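Researcher: I'm preparing a figure for a lab meeting and need a structural model of a single chain. I don't have an experimental structure, so a prediction will have to do for now. The sequence is pasted below. Please return the structure as tokens so I can convert it later.
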Amino acid sequence: MKRRAFVLSGLVAALPAWAGERFERGLLWRVTKDGVRPGHVYGTIHVADARLAELPAPVRRAFDGARSLMLEFVPDGYARERFLEAAMFLDRQTLEGTIGKPDFERAMEVLQPIGLAREVVNKLKPWGVLLNLRNPQRAAQGVPLDSQLLEAARARRLPLSQIEGVEEQIFTFDEFPMASQIALL
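Model: Understood. Here is the structure written out token by token.
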């Protein structure tokens, strides 16, 4: 049952099919079952990159006809607060003490555009800093594709669902060994 729920949760439900079109490139899959409206699964990446901003024509047609959208994670106000809480060291540890002064200063420099206070950054775990490092480039590089799809679905008032909740997302980052978090940062 768990496997079936996982597979089904990954599907972009109730998208119309178009006859005879073959997908030669990209990460769009059509999922069919007799008696059920076809669905599609489209692979995205959480990176702001202008090269990914425009949906390929087959994906655009599928999305334009969608009746719902399922994403890996749908952020909301509670999720943002919970992420910030979970991304903070709760003991006397500091980011500077964990990664060293030179790397801490580089992190401060890169995070400067988003305006986080030095004291806040110093209480962040390495994975918390890593998640925030993507945001300063957002204005220059555009909005990540999954965020664009979410915004477009909300504008169309499509039903939304998610594969993972905030606690599952946090668990993924928090269970990374500290040495791995530092290496990724």
